[in-house]
Each structure stands twice: as structure tokens, then as C-alpha cells.
Amino acid sequence: MTNAKPRLVGLNHIALEVGDVDEALSFYGAVFTFDLRGSHKDDDGKLGMAFLDMGDQFLALIRGRQQSPDQNRHFGLVVDDRSSVRDLAKDAGAKMLEGKFLDFLDPWGNRIQVVEYRDLQFSKSPAVLRAMGLDLDKSAEAEKELRNKGMA
Fold first, then answer.
1. CA distance 34 to 23
2. CA-to-CA distance for 91 and 146, rounded, in angstroms?
């Protein structure tokens, strides 16, 4: 019998609670380009869940946010180009947060950090990038970090 623990290899999805899924689709659609992977209506006929496709991962928007706005808890969305995110998020109704990172609160108080693919160790396989219609590269610093880990 082995006592080996399973190794974490990534995130499949993140479930994000929002007040209204239709409104959340409008908000996130005003800031980001994405394909809708699917959706589900609740028994009351209202949209209860929607899944934003990110290639081999997804963001699940789920109706029912009731907690107060996030202070430190957050997650990072990776984009191909973040140069317009600040203006788009602000115009869509996000509360922009001060600091060296690009963080905002969505209309339901979820704290989102936006980072650019080229600057991270995070990588998608060439096949996933092709399927998403993306041709992205890494910055020299990100390449160095990946090489130091034997991943480039």
C-alpha cells in the first residue's frame, strides 16, 4: 500500500458567485472576450449558472452572492493583452483598486486580478492555444523562470 499523495497539476475551474448571472455575463462580456461554454437555468427559470470558456479551463458564474466584498481573497485571470482592461472594467461598473497590480471588484464584490500571459510562468499547451486561435509568447523573465524549473 502506498501513502503517496496526489500532486496538484492545475485548476479545472473557479466558481464565482454573482447576484444575477445575466447581469454578470453582460459585465464580464463588456470587459473580456470569451466563448460561453454552457449555461443552466434554475427551477425558477432564471439563469443559475454560466460557464466562460478559457480553453482547457473555465470560469463558472453562479447566482447567489451574499457575502460582503472581498478584501484580500481574489483570483487572477490571464489575458492575452491587458492594456485596455482598466478602462473597460471601469466603464462596465467595476471598482478599480489601488496598488501595483490590476485589481478590481466586480459589481458583486468579487476581487479580480488581471495578468498578462506573456509575463507568467503559467502556460497553455500549443494545442490549446491553437484551438483558442491565439499565438502568444512569453517575456524574457517568464522564459527564464520556466527554464530554471526545467519547463522551457
1. 15
2. 36
Task: Please say whether the beta carbons of 37 and 55 come within 8 A.
Answer: no
Question: In 3D, which of 36, 34, 57 has the Cα closest to residue 125?
Answer: 57
Does the pTM exceed 0.85?
Answer: yes
pLDDT of residue 1: 60
With b for 16 or more beta-carbon neighbours within 10 A and e for fewer, the 76-94 pattern comes to: ebbbeebeebeeebeebeb
**Residue written as grid cell 434554475:** 42
* Terminal Cα distance for the chain, rounded: 35
- Decide the pairing of beta strands 58-63 and 13-18: parallel
Please give the Cα distance from 32 to 50 (Å, whole number). 15
Res. 9: pLDDT tops 90: no
Q: Which domains does the chain have, with CATH numbers?
A: 13-148 (3.10.180.10)
Count of other CB atoms within 10 angstroms of residue 5: 6
Long-range Cβ contact pairs of 39-47 (< 8 A, separation 24 or more): 46/20, 46/21, 46/22, 47/21, 47/22
